[in-house]
Design goal:
Layout lengths: L1 H18 L2 E5 L12 E7 L2 H13 L8 E4 L2 E4 L1 E5 L15 H14 L6 E9 L12 H7 L5 H11 L3 E5 L3 E2 H8 L3 H23 L6 H9 L2 H14 L3 H15 L5 H18 L2 E5 L2 H8 L3 E6 L5 H12 L6 E5 L7 H7 L2 E4 L7 H17 L3 E2 L18 H10 L7 E10 L5 H8 L9 H9 L6 E6 L3 E2 H8 L18 H18 L5 H11 L4 E3 H17 L13 H10 L4 E5 L2 E5 L2 H14 L4 H12 L3 E2 H19 L5 H17 L3 E3 L4 E4 L3 H12 L2 H17 L4 H18 L5 H4 L1 H13 L3 E3 L5 E3 L3 H11 L2 H8 L1
Parallel strand pairs: 1-7, 2-5, 2-6, 9-15, 10-13, 10-14, 11-12, 11-13
Antiparallel strand pairs: 3-4, 6-7, 6-8, 14-15, 14-16, 17-19, 18-19, 20-22, 21-22, 23-24
Helix pairs in contact: 1-2, 3-6, 3-7, 9-10, 9-15, 10-15, 15-16, 21-22, 21-24, 22-23, 25-26, 25-28, 26-27, 26-32, 29-30, 29-33, 29-34, 30-32
Length: about 800
């Protein structure tokens, strides 16, 4: 019998090799089999195609052959446990049971009698295709194939033929038979329990990969028209405009057609193939971090809401592709209405996009329909993705969040959704953003061009090697838990019929939005281009010798490796020399040769472009730069004084740069940085507790470069503190205007070509933070005045800024 089965498998291997391509997802690192720790697998179906596909996947993961056997204490066991046999071809026959139960009991008994035995059981889920089940009115042949829980051999043949190239093999973390035996026993009840858990585990994974039941657009429109809020709004609009409800319903249908997506699995699969081909030609690598947390959230039944930063139009494609590759269903994506042009609009809709206007413009009917459409997506269990910044960042820094989508998300929760809503901040980084040139033109006053098919073709024509891409998934933010802390009685506002807008909604959403942006920044990805930009922008004349730049890169890298900005930060493993070689290959810098060696510099155009990449990671070096600046400007400084000043200065930049660190984290990181500098022989502490720098010129140049990274931020602080001290009392508007005027002068005098340096909104944010920190008060006339603590912080800032800058401000 075994020989016959082996021959059958041998015959199937060649056609399956041609028809099946597996995307392998491993939730943990590959484990090694040991004599007392044999490895077993558990799968959903006892199917030859499943087992052979699993065999191929195991070989790639360096795992034991699932078709083999394991000998334990003289007894032989099949390595793979199968939960269900195929459904019989004819309905009057019943499917026989597998040996999973008997083998499970036998293995548990072996552990009960052998205390040294600890077999591992790896759940391996084979998912053929990503077609979700559909509402019954929309069944088709693809749905019928996908719906079958344990298909018969004929149906399985069609599955392999049509879906084999889109197969997902997911290896979960291994279960320990020893743990099951010790905690649950070794009898039939324990075996039943772990098999039941395995079935539920596979069910959750399959839903996470395929998504919930798919609603057709017309079904969604029917559900929206039946929604009490939409019905009431249609009635109110008809009365206020004195027209019939039928007329308003026509307008509502037009709005629904404008908003709603038209998700198609076949289009998504086709797009995935195209993107797979495209990324290989555009990017050297796409680096993904912390994706495991997504799979756990999906499997635990969370409603996932992706909230990425927005750098480029590439974000839509790259993040969606990564999510699919990580074994999860494509989210429904909120896209700007500007992308709804032919033919891209249709393609994006088929890929899961739904469209949102830049402004609702007081259109109550539109806002009601959009809010209820978003609520319907959450209610049906679809993952959603939206960009809280509202648009692409033109400067490389994260933008102030638009809170509308977050507010509607919380309002959906107030409808009584019975599953947790969880935000997943996503940091997206690039070594080349194709729109950077356009961004600088727009910031210089050029009119923003509307998206069009011509623009797409022009962009495709200019495609080249873009280096590396980075997608870092941040720390999940459970909205339910957030509300429990912020508004303990928030559940009192739950109303399944009427949309609620309690008094606490707006301030709570503002806090949540700020934390989202902080968590995005917390998950930053350092890369060669951004680090090179940061260092060259901090150097005089934007140029360094190649040897010195390599040393600076190593210094910046080692500081983060030993005193990291956050646990989520990803740091390159390469050396400074290797990173610089990569940056040079991307033509980001200019190399000139002289008798002393190679010089690395930035051309005028490259200088503008590299500021963008510098701004991507500037926030990660705020604390190290502050420490180095204080050490550089003081011959010696007491440790407590240094820590206090770093904390106070960082707090002033917290909202401007969306820094996550509170007082405790700043103190810990400051002490870590001092310890690292001491180990590098750059700084030393006296017995009296005073810190000072080394006399080594080469090491001092590294400290000076780090200190210069924060120079522009300190200049902006100096402008505000100096002007308010000199001109108070002054109105908020007048202060903002004068601060911008001085910033413009400094930008010319010091050749600072940075839109964010002179941006009025950025200056307003800085002034507001200084006021929140208690350095600015408001008098009875509503004018801004300095508080008693202003003199101290002003003195600290002025001591860290060059005299030429202070003279320019004073004039």
């Amino acid at each position: 019998m075994l020989a016959l089965r082996s021959f059958f498998y041998l015959l199937l291997k060649l056609p399956l090799k041609l028809l099946v391509r597996c995307n392998i997802i491993a939730d943990s690192q590959s484990i090694t089999e040991q004599p007392n720790k044999p490895i077993f697998y558990i799968v959903r179906h006892q199917s030859a195609s499943d087992l052979l596909a699993l065999q191929s996947a195991c070989k790639k993961q360096n795992l034991p052959d699932p078709l083999g056997q394991v000998t334990i204490n003289g007894k032989r066991f099949n390595r793979t446990l199968c939960l269900a046999k195929p459904t019989p071809l004819f309905s009057w026959r019943k499917a026989s049971k597998t040996t999973a139960m008997a083998q499970g009991i036998a293995l548990l008994n072996q552990h009960a009698h052998d205390e040294d035995l600890d077999a591992k059981l790896i759940p391996a889920n084979l998912i053929w295709g990503r077609t979700p089940t559909k509402e019954r009115k929309n069944l088709n042949i693809g749905t019928l194939i996908a719906d079958q829980e344990s298909p018969n051999w004929l149906r399985k043949l069609f599955i392999v033929l049509f879906l084999g190239r889109d197969t997902l093999v997911r290896f979960s973390e291994a279960f320990s038979f020893r743990n099951i035996t010790d905690n649950h026993g070794s009898d039939e009840v324990a075996a039943h329990k772990f098999l039941r858990v395995a079935r539920f585990h596979f069910h959750r994974q399959t839903i996470a990969a395929k998504g919930p039941r798919l609603m057709h657009r017309k079904q969604m429109f029917t559900a929206l028209f039946a929604n009490p809020s939409v019905k009431r709004m249609i009635s109110d609009e008809a009365k206020s405009k004195k027209v019939s409800e039928a007329e308003i319903k026509k307008q509502a249908l037009i709005i629904m057609n404008e908003i709603a997506g038209d998700y198609s699995v076949s289009w998504v699969r086709f797009g995935e193939i195209i993107l797979h081909w495209l990324w290989k030609r555009l990017y050297s690598a796409i680096n993904v971090s912390n994706a495991k947390v997504l799979r756990k959230l999906a499997q635990d039944g969370h409603e996932i809401i992706y909230v990425p930063c927005h750098r480029s139009h590439m974000d839509y494609l790259l993040l969606s592709y990564v999510i699919l590759q990580e074994g999860l269903v494509m989210p429904r994506i909120a896209a700007g209405i500007n992308l709804n042009f032919w033919p891209a609009g249709t393609v994006f809709r088929k890929g899961g996009a739904f469209f949102i206007r830049r402004s609702f413009g007081g259109n109550r009917l539109y806002s009601t329909i959009f809010r209820e459409y978003l609520g319907l997506l959450f209610e049906r269990g679809y993952a959603v993705k939206y960009y809280t910044e509202g648009g692409r960042s033109r400067t490389g820094r994260v933008l102030a969040p638009k809170t509308g989508m977050l507010a509607m998300t919380i309002q959906s929760l107030l409808r009584g959704i019975d599953r947790p809503l969880t935000l997943v901040p996503v940091y997206i980084g690039y070594e080349h953003v194709m729109e950077v040139g356009t961004y600088h033109k727009e910031l210089s006053g050029s009119e923003k061009k509307s998206e069009s098919m011509f623009g797409v073709l022009k962009a495709i024509k200019s495609l080249r090697n873009y280096g590396n891409g980075y997608v870092n998934f941040g720390e999940p933010m459970n909205i339910n838990e957030f509300l429990n802390k912020q508004v303990p009685d928030w559940k009192d506002a739950i109303d399944p019929i009427d949309p609620q807008k309690p008094t606490w909604l707006t301030p709570t959403v503002n806090v949540l939005a700020g934390q989202v942006m902080e968590n995005i920044n917390k998950s930053a990805a350092l890369n060669g281009v951004a680090l090179t930009a940061l260092i060259l922008q901090a150097s005089k004349n934007k140029a360094l010798s190649k040897r010195e730049l390599e040393k600076q890169l190593d210094f910046f890298l080692n500081l983060q490796r030993q005193a990291p900005f956050s646990e989520q930060l990803t740091i390159p493993e390469e050396t400074g020399a290797e990173l610089l070689t990569h940056v040079i290959s991307l033509n980001k810098v200019t190399i000139t040769e002289d008798s002393f060696g190679s010089l690395v510099s930035l051309s005028e155009t490259a200088n503008l472009e590299m500021r963008y990449y510098r701004n991507n990671i500037l926030h990660t070096y705020v604390v190290p730069a502050m420490v180095c600046r204080l050490l550089d400007k003081h011959s010696k400084i007491n440790q407590d004084e240094l820590v206090t000043k770093v904390h106070k200065l960082t707090a002033l930049l917290k909202e401007d740069l969306y820094l996550y660190q509170e007082t405790k984290q700043v103190e810990q990181q400051t002490l870590q940085i001092l310890n690292v500098l001491e180990n590098m022989n750059i700084a030393k502490q006296s017995k009296a507790g005073f810190w000072s720098l080394t006399d080594d010129g080469e090491l001092l140049s590294q400290v000076h470069a780090m200190a210069e990274c924060i120079d522009e931020s300190l200049q902006r602080l100096a402008i505000v503190t100096s002007l308010i001290s000199r001109l108070a009392p002054i109105s908020k508007r007048d202060l903002e205007t004068k601060v911008v005027d001085i910033a413009k002068r400094l930008s010319v005098l010091n050749n600072i070509n940075a839109p964010e340096f002179i941006d009025k909104r950025a200056q307003a944010t800085l002034i507001a933070t200084i006021r929140e920190q208690g350095y600015i008060d408001m008098n009875d006339d509503g004018l801004l005045v300095t508080s008693e603590s202003m003199a101290e912080i002003k003195a600290t800032v002025i001591n860290l800024v060059d005299i030429e800058v202070l003279q320019s401000i004073a004039r």
